[in-house]
Structures are given as C-alpha cells and as structure tokens.
Amino acid sequence: MKYLEAFRDGGIARTLAEALRREVQPGRAYAFMEFCGGHTHAISRYGVEDLLPPELRLIHGPGCPVCVLPTGRIEQVLRLALDRPVTLCVYGDTLRVPAAGGMSLLKARAMGADVRMIYSAMDALALAQREPVRQVVFFAIGFETTTPPTALVVREAARLGLSNFSVLCCHVLTPPAIRAIAEGGEGGGAALIDGFIGPAHVSTVIGTRPYAPFAAGFRKPVVIAGFEPLDVMQAIRMLVRQVNEGRAEVENEFTRAVTADGNLKAQALMAEVFTLREDFEWRGLGILPRSALRLADAFSGFDAERRFGLEYSPIPDHKGCECAAVLRGVTRARDCRLFGTVCTPETPVGACMVSSEGACAAYYAYGRSRDPGAAAA
Amino acid sequence: MKSVYVRPLDLRSGHVDLAHGGGGRAMQQLIGEVFRRAFDNPWLVRGDDGAVLPALAPGERLVVSTDSHVVSPLFFPGGDIGSLSVHGTLNDVAVMGARPLYLSVGFILEEGFPLADLLRIAESMGRAAADAGVAIVTGDTKVVERGKGDGVFITTTGMGALPADRELSGAFARPGDAVLVSGTLGEHGMAIMAQREGLTFEGDLRSDSAALHGLAAAVLEASPGLRLMRDPTRGGLAATLNEIARQSTVGIVLEESALPVSQAVAAACEFLGLDPLNLASEGRLLAVCPGAEAAPLLAALRAHPLGRQAALIGEVVADERCFVQMQTMLGGRRMVDWLAGEPLPRIC
C-alpha cells in the first residue's frame, strides 16, 4: 500500500500542477481524451481536474466495458437468460445495464432467470465443472484486459471436454475504437481532441506498438498512463509537451508495467482462441469493422451464439439518452437532459450511468456537487 | 406416576426439523435446551408470553430499535451472526444516547440447519448480551421448509433508557461542527466480502463487530454539547454522512488523509475496486460535536479501548444542497455519494 500511496501524494501533485501551469501556453486550449474508464474513475475519484490549469480540458472516452455494450447485446443475453434453461455468469457491472423497456439482468434475475455474479472467468468454469447438469454460459465482455482470462477458460473447457459450458463473447478491441473516435463523425473526432491518454491495463497486454500507426496517421500524441492520479498528471504533462513541440508520438508513462511488445503469451493465447468478427455494434460508435472477437472455429463448440442459435439485432437507444455522444466525447455527461433527472445510478437509462468507470456515473458520484443546480438528494 | 423420559436434543449432529417450530413439545425442548440455557435470565425462565419489565426512572424515556440479520457466511473472523445480532441492535440504541437494557429476538430457522451451529450462535448471543449487561428477555422461533431460508435469520429489538435531559439526532448537525470516527473503517464489510469470495489477503481481515455502549458513554461525558452519534453500518460512512447532511440540511467536508483505514482493508479495496467509505463497520462510532469540543472528544475516544485509532475526519459546513465532499490526498475535491446498488467490484 505504501507503494500505491506514492502515486497519490499531494506534495508531488502540487509540484506537477505547478509545472503544468508553467508549461501550458497562454491562450492555447488543450483537450485530451482519456480513453479508459479506469482513468475516468481515477480522475474523478481523486479530483485531478481541480489541479489542472484552466487551459486544460479532459474528455472522457469510451473505454468502459459495459458502456460500449449496445442495447441489442443486452437484449440478446436477456433473452438467453429468460427463455433458455441456462445459468448465466456475468461480471457485476453488467447486471444493471439497461435494455429496452427498463429491463436489466438484475430484473431478469428477480423474474426467475438464473443469473450469477462472478469475479473471474474461472468462477464460471468451476460452476460448470461442479454442476454438470447445468448449462453454464459466461457473458464475456471487456477490452484486451479481460480477454486473456476468457481465452484461458475456453481452452481449459476444451481440454476437459465440458459439454455444459459456453461463452457469449462480446470482447472488443481498443485500437479500432480509438481510431473511430479520431475519425469522429458528428462534431467529434480529431478536430476536438489534441491528444490521448492511452490505456493502462489494456496496454500491458497489447503493448505500445498498436498505437503508433494511429498517432502518426491522425497526428495525435498518445501517452500510455497508469491508473493512479499522479500517472495521469504526468501523462498530461507529457501530452502538453508534445503538443507544444508539435510532436505526435506514442510515449509511455506507465513503464513500470507496459512494454513496447506487451504480453506476448497473452497475445498468443488470444490469437489461438479468438478470431476477429467481421463487424460489431458499439454503443456510441456504431458498427465498427474488425473491432471485436468471437471464438475461433477450433473452439466454436463453446460459442454460446452457435450453441443456442442466437441472432443479433440492433435496438435503438432511448431517445433522450446521449450516451452515444458522451462516449464519443462530443457531449459532457452533465449536458445530457436525462442526467441526474430520470437517469441516475439507481435507475440508469444509458450504460454510461452504470459502471463507476462510465463518464456519467463517475460525474454523478464524484463531481455533480460542482453544478450549481444539483442537489445531493 | 411413571417418569417421562425425553430424549435430549442431539446438539452434536442433529438438525432443525419442522417440529421445532410447530408449537409443540419439540419447540419447547429447543427453546429450553438451546435458547433459555444460552440467554439465561429470570424473564425467560418464567416462560410467559411476554416479559414484564420494570418501569424506567422518572423522566427517562424508552428508546427502541430493531434490526434483522441475514449475514452470509454465518461465522466469520471476528464474530458470527449471533454476536452481530446483539451488537448491531444494541449499538443502534446506544448511539441514540440511551443505556441499552433489554433485547427481544426472533429466529427464522431453515429446516435441516445443524443444531450444533444453532447452539454456537445462541451461546455467542448470550455471551455478547451478558458482556454488554443486556438481557434477552423474550423471543420467538419459526422454522421454514428447506430451501425457503438461508440457515438462520435473526431479528433483534433493543430497548434502552434515555435520560430526561438528553436529545441526540441526525438533524442537529450545524456548520462548524466537527466529525469524528472511533476507528478504522470498513473492517466488517471487507471481512465478510473476503470470506464470501474466498479471498485471502495479507494481514488480518477481521470484523470489528463490538458493543459500543461503553464508548458511547465516554463520548457523552466528554462532549456535553454532542449533536449526534451514529454507527456506520450498511452503506458505510458515506451513507451515514449523507443521511446526516440531509437530516440537518448541511454539507460535510471530509479530509481523506485523516480517514483511518487499516492496511488490510486498504489493500483489499484496491484489489476489488471498492471504497472503504462504502463498507460497513459494526463496531465503530461516528460523532458530531461542536467544533470547540472536538479536541477533548478525540482524547476521550482515544483513551477508550475501542477508540484507540479515533480520528477527527471532517467538518460540517453550510450547504443547503446537502453535499458530502472530500478533500482528496492528491489535493482535489470530490463528492462522497451514496453507493448505488450492491458494492460491486470493477471488472478491469
């Protein structure tokens, strides 16, 4: 713990803040997007923005696993849990993601669906082993951080020859999402953002190389940063320097965990077990080609979509919900009409209000006291 | 006349069955051999439908509080559902400023529950009550079919005497008041969570479950102007402070660096992505007193065995919007909100 506290030290934070104030050029505005929900959470949780000079603005990105799940995927898994005799294992955050008509996995559970909250993919596999009469489905979501553990359990299930275990794979990839953000669409994109705070845990797996073509192609600096608040501040300082010097490079602030190559074993494992989907719908970013994974043909027996013949059909989001624009960095959480009124963490309308890493939930829980109109209620 | 032989309960390997809640001889036997023995006091021994309690002293008022306990696992480091059901309820009475006197208890047992576990729980309750000088004067037992309960649920109601001139309430906090807590946060919540999930961490994760009436008495003595006391259980300190802010229509500002959190809880929170402010304590007392009384109150808390790690953690400020905020270690400020839903770990 001593180790972690060093990355939250108020004295160092003050020094960094002073350095930032000196280094930002007067009259110039800097807008940086932190891609990861982990960063969004750390920024809000430690009040990082209070220490930044007014020239600097942080834009919360889409890197929150549950936030980017489109309603259609939630609906798909809801139907599976409600209509088929399965035991669905999910990560906690997915329980409250809203589907159409105010439904969620939590509500499905109250209606009798067998939905279990798990902490790791291994828990789902262990359940399938323990209770062979049950059809256990693991709802696998997340970026490259949670993907290798899913690969491991699939391979293990294959080794054990389990016939009652399958995976509904919604793992998504970071680089296509960053690219989509930079390409923009409706008022967003590269014009809006001067640089990116790159993912921490994701980069431990994929390394720093995958960001290079992006930084060069879009002329946007990327600084990979750890999830502690001083990591974020240091990364911001590195971004400011790049912008000031007209550079657009991939730099690594998180050298204590991230290398250029990343975790080659994990990458090999993912390549063995998964293959690219042709396309995948993201909340906020639309349908992105080659942006998500499904099980490779050698493991298709464990693919829940095949086993249960699940079709995918997109479902439009709630009309008033601006999650899509929030995820692209075009709209701030507090500017959504639904924010804090009908959309709260207790009754989320959009996915960004669900996970503590979501831009809306983070602002609701940690920041809304800044709004003159807000009340604690 | 023939003497009747009644086979004693098999307290080693027997189980609760439906007859134990049926109102017949089996129930009488369970009450006699388990509860009456563990709780031993003159009211229970009389075996009437209710307990006739003596009148309070003139001017004293009766404080009543009730709490149901459904904790899982039933046994955990630092306590069990039995001791918890005593501490939890008598603490609610104690933080009202009252002297806890009596408890009533309702058991809902699941068919098949091991009698040995029930005895262990009852004895733990008896010990906790005796240690606190409180008598369990009346009770009830029901048995539900297998699968309709989770072993045992325990509801306790506590009664205590509040002196004539004393009034504490969550509505009494005023700007300028000091906020103190009697010790490290979230030990109970984290001990339960770690046990439930089979997590092992370095260091000692134990529930802080304890009876707070002695500590509460010390607080009352040290702070004549005391506004209120609370025990931050479910929802943790964050929920308790938000309740107070709302009741009193004030804001509260915490100092993160002043929050007492043990190494073990801090490490486990990091691992699970949880905030110690949202985790339950079962043996910690929160006090709000006029700013001028903060120093003597802190000294009194620290002088008590249950308050060695007490800390002054924040102050009450004027804020009609009732926000609880925290000055972070980093030097920023953030809100401290209620927790939404269950405390769920982050997934990446």
Keywords:
heterodimer, A: 377 residues, alpha/beta, Rossmann fold, 2 domains, 5-stranded parallel sheet, 4-stranded parallel sheet, 15 helices, 37% helix, 17% strand, B: 348 residues, alpha+beta, 60s Ribosomal Protein L30, Chain: A, Phosphoribosyl-aminoimidazole Synthetase, Chain A, domain 2, 4-stranded mixed sheet, 9 helices, 13 strands, 30% helix, 22% strand, globular
Q: Largest beta sheet of chain A: what is the strand line-up?
A: 2-1-7-8-9
**Could you tell me the number of beta strands of chain A?**
13
- And the CATH topology of the largest domain in chain A? Rossmann fold
The SSE string of chain A, one letter per element, is: HHEHEHEHEHEHEHEHHEHEHEEEEHHH
Indicate the structural class of chain B. alpha+beta
CATH architecture of the largest domain in chain B: Alpha-Beta Complex
Q: CATH class of the largest domain in chain B, anyone?
A: Alpha Beta
- How would a textbook summarize the main sheet of chain B? 7 strands, mixed
Going by CATH, the homologous superfamily of the largest domain in chain B would be PurM-like C-terminal domain
Distance between the termini of chain B: 75 Å
| Parts with pLDDT < 50 across at least 5 consecutive residues of chain B | none
Order of SSEs of chain B: HHEEEHEHEEEHHEHEHEHEEE
The 3D shape of chain B can be described as globular
Count of the domains of chain A: 2
Helix content of chain A: 25-40%
What proportion strand of chain B? 15-25%
- Radius of gyration of chain B, whole Å: 22 Å
The general outline of chain A is: globular
Percent range for helical residues of chain B?
25-40%
Protein name (chain A): Hydrogenase maturation factor
Keywords (chain A): Iron, Metal-binding
Pfam family, one (chain A): HypD
GO molecular function (chain A): 4 iron, 4 sulfur cluster binding; carbon monoxide binding; iron ion binding
